[in-house]
Amino acid sequence: MVTIVTGKMNEGKTTAMRALHDRWGGDGFVSLKRMDGDKVLRFDAMRLADQTQKTLAIHVEHDTIGFSLGARLGPYRFSEATWRWINEQIDVMIDDGITPIYLDEIGMLELNGEGFHQALVKLVKAHHPLVFSVREDLLADVCKKYTLINPRTMRANEVESCMTSP
Question: How many Å apart are CA 67 and CA 58, to the nearest integer?
Answer without folding.
Answer: 9
